[in-house]
Amino acid sequence: MTRIVKGIPRGASIVALAAVALLLVAACGTGVSVLQPPPAATEQGKATEWLYQVVFIVAVVVFFLVEGLIVYAAVRYRRRKGDESLPPQIHGNNVLEVIWTAIPVAIVAILFVISWQTLNTVDAVSAKPNLRIDVTGFQWQWQFTYPEQGITLIGLPDKEPELVVPVDETVQVKLESRDVNHGFYVPAFLFKRDVIPGKTNVFDFKATETGTFDGHCTQFCGLLHSKMLFKVRVVTRAEFDAWVAGAKATPTPAPSATAAPSASAGTGGGGGSGQPVALQLTAQNIAYDKSELTAPANTPIQLTFVNNDNGIPHDVAIRKGSPTGEDVFTGEIFPGVATKVYDVPALPAGTYAFVCTVHPNMTGTLTVQ
Questions:
Q1: CA-to-CA distance for 205 and 201, rounded, in angstroms?
Q2: Given 95, 126, 137, 290, which residue has the most CB atoms within 10 angstroms?
């Protein structure tokens, strides 16, 4: 009988195994711990972190046990030079078969039980949370509403909304979507929950440390998906109460219907004299019903804006030249279905763009002549 593998000396095999072991040790010493997920900043996240550590340790033990037995068998029972005899043939071992069946079953059963307990911990919802917050995802931002405090915050593509919560208190979040699938994810919480149209998801979290943590949408939801960012700021109870008082003093965080200083810098008569001209614009299915508007120069504009998108916030901003140009007017953001009248100061002759600051894909051209 000829040998299956020729030309590989015993010493080379040992050196190769040693090299593999050194590579594994080096990989563990690169500064990124494979034993730790991102540090958890909530009680629920710590439960997830603990489960991860248990599963990882079990996986490491199983890996080295199995691979060690394979290496041991390969070295111990390798074909030796000059030995052409056939080794003893074993046709089954009931004890070994029971052992290698019972041990994996026991491991899987234990992991199932502790995973079930962790899932119940993460999904537990309190009947009396310390704070309730309604979170609404829409293309392409977030709306945070504190129903008991009477505070609503709406994010913009260039201004992330901030969810402010007290530390060491149970916060209950109610998630809803106004349009398509979104995902509410805070890496430091080790938690993600889908935001699905027509379905309300509720979860609790209790932050265990103060600080500011990043959050974002995890479901690709369209053109400006990458802009669906937010912050979670965890503060002390005293700081939270002070923040609530300040937010109540400014009930509408969105820009109000005021003009930028450049809006009054028109040519003769640009101070807004004369009767305003009436214009109307409607938002429907995240789009304006008109792509062009026309108005006389140096005359105030009374713009009636109808938002027919139920629960989705829109506004109208007017910018010089293009949708990314200088702001000359920004109307108040408000959710539909509703109507607001914007008083736009007189504008000098020229070409302007009107755009929704919440949905920058909604644009049109305003010609002032």
A1: 13
A2: 137
163, containing H or E segment: strand 162-166
Give, for all 369 residues of the chain, the pLDDT tens digit. 444 444 445 555 555 555 555 555 554 544 444 556 678 999 999 999 999 999 999 999 999 999 999 999 888 888 888 888 887 887 878 888 899 899 999 999 999 999 999 999 999 999 999 999 999 998 888 999 999 999 988 887 778 899 999 999 999 999 999 889 999 999 999 999 999 999 999 999 999 999 999 999 999 988 888 889 999 999 999 999 999 998 887 654 444 443 333 333 333 334 445 688 999 999 988 889 999 999 998 889 999 999 988 878 889 999 998 888 888 999 988 888 899 999 999 999 999 999 998 888 889 999 998
Q: How far apart are CA 342 and CA 226, in angstroms?
A: 30
Find the distance separating the first CA and the last CA of the chain, reported in whole Å.
99
Q: What are phi and psi of 140, to 5 degrees?
A: -135, 70
- CA atoms lying within 13 Å on the CB side of residue 338: 12
Q: Which of 366, 38, 4, 34 minimizes the C-alpha distance to 214? A: 38
| 320 token code pair | 């010089």
- Distances in Å between the alpha carbon of 160 and those of 32, 131, 214, 352? 30, 21, 10, 26
CA 237 to CA 169: how far, in whole Å?
9
- Do the beta carbons of residue 344 and residue 329 sit within 8 Å? yes
Q: Which domains, and CATH codes, for the chain? A: 10-80+91-123 (1.10.287.90), 131-249 (2.60.40.420), 258-368 (2.60.40.420)
- Nearest 5°: CA angle at 267, between 266 and 271? 55
- Residues 143 and 150: their CA atoms lie apart, in Å, by 13
Answer for the pair 185, 218: CB distance below 8 angstroms, yes or no: yes
Q: Is 86 exposed, middle or buried (0-12, 13-18, 19+ CB in 10 A)?
A: exposed
In the β-sheet with 201-206, what is the strand arrangement from edge to edge? 151-154, 141-146, 131-138, 170-177, 201-206
